[in-house]
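WARN retry 2 of 3 for item q-0093 after timeout on previous attempt; input resubmitted unchanged.
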Amino acid sequence: MLKLYTAAAPNGRKVSIALEELALAYEVVTVDLQAPEHPTDAMLRLNPT
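OK item q-0093 returned
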């Protein structure tokens, strides 16, 4: 199963729409980009930018 790390932003919605259209199983993990603890070390390992 795929994990979709996304915030409430247009690009995250585009990916979820594509996954639905492809009928792929996925789990949504919501990321709060405005949270003071962002970016965490775990998130930086997933996406260094």
